[in-house]
Write a structure and sequence with these properties.
alpha/beta, five-stranded mixed sheet, 4 helices
């Protein structure tokens, strides 16, 4: 819920929190649809994470996975470094990049 509130404060639209059947959080910014998965260590295997990314890429233009120090390597191996952000300032920077992309 904190992430959803943060996105709303940052100007994202269509922010939704999902508990089943979709990404944890979905939103839009600048007409870009985004899926965000918050992953706790030990909750999903590499195969499951690859499947999530594949599913969400069919529906959303950008897919982000948030992790922490304990599961960051697994997430990067499964879904690619460019899609993984450690919770906190790294994730906040990724959000800022979506709001104000580099030209």
């Amino acid at each position: 819920m904190q992430i959803a509130g943060y996105l709303i404060l940052k100007g994202f639209s269509e922010v939704q929190v999902n508990h089943h059947d979709d990404a944890d959080i979905t939103a839009k910014i600048r007409n870009i649809s985004i899926a965000i998965e918050y992953e706790n260590p030990g909750t999903h295997s590499k195969t499951e994470l690859v499947g999530k990314k594949s599913r969400y890429e069919k529906q959303y233009q950008k897919v982000l996975f948030i992790g922490n120090y304990s599961n960051e390597r697994l997430l990067c191996d499964a879904v690619g470094d460019e899609n993984v952000f450690r919770r906190g300032s790294a994730f906040a920077s990724a959000i800022e990049d979506l709001i104000n992309p580099a030209t």
